[in-house]
Design goal:
The protein contains seven helices and five strands, in the order E-H-E-H-H-H-H-E-H-E-H-E. By secondary structure, it is an alpha/beta fold. The chain has a domain of about 100 residues: DsrEFH-like (Hypothetical Protein Ychn, Chain: A, 3-Layer(aba) Sandwich). Helix 6 links the parallel strand 3 and strand 4. Helix 1 packs parallel to helix 5. The chain is globular. The two termini are about 20 Å apart.
């Protein structure tokens, strides 16, 4: 986790294990890299799911993101204009299959808009040099073995992480 001198750094702190949160994190990370910043992402709590080799467990939950705009990138023009999260009652999103529907729509929108999938974007960030650090307490509390996660991640406690990234610009996601 040692930082190069004179290079601006960005520290992203992930605590949510949702598809939209992780996608946003990776967009910020790749953008900062393009601006020649050193980027480190610290994963704590439920965000440990973002480090699994298989990302199929990541989903999108409109009930947890009240302000989320959910427009479809397919269908007729009038259907594409509708904000489904605003139109449908909040209780709709707790029905069986609603989370899967929202997740599928998000992934389909990415594909239609020629954006990388979550797997592709994570791989791009890794190849470009984003450092992924997993919280050691999270590993202890969840019982997850670090060897079951993707390769080339570091493990650190929160105090060690903050000591290393102190001069960084930090964003909490």
């Amino acid at each position: 986790m040692e930082q190069e001198k004179n290079q601006e750094t960005l520290s992203l702190i992930m605590t949510k294990g949702s598809l939209d949160s992780f996608y946003s994190c990776l967009v910020l990370a790749s953008t900062a890299l393009a601006m020649d910043k050193k980027v480190t992402v610290f994963f704590a709590g439920n965000s440990i799911k973002c480090l699994y080799k298989n990302l199929n467990s990541l989903s999108l939950s409109p009930i947890e993101s009240e302000g989320m705009v959910m427009k479809l990138a397919f269908g007729s023009a009038w259907v594409r204009k509708i904000d489904w999260n605003n139109l449908l009652p909040r209780c709709f999103w707790i029905l069986p299959g609603a989370r899967k529907l929202a997740t599928s729509a998000f992934k389909k929108n990415l594909k239609i808009k020629n954006q990388p999938s979550i797997e592709e974007l994570r791989e791009i960030c890794i190849e470009l040099g984003v450092s992924f650090v997993v919280c050691s307490m999270t590993l202890d509390l969840t019982g997850v073995d670090i060897n079951s996660l993707i390769d080339n991640i570091e493990q650190a406690g929160a105090a060690s992480y903050f000591a290393e990234t102190m001069p960084s610009q930090a964003l909490y996601i």
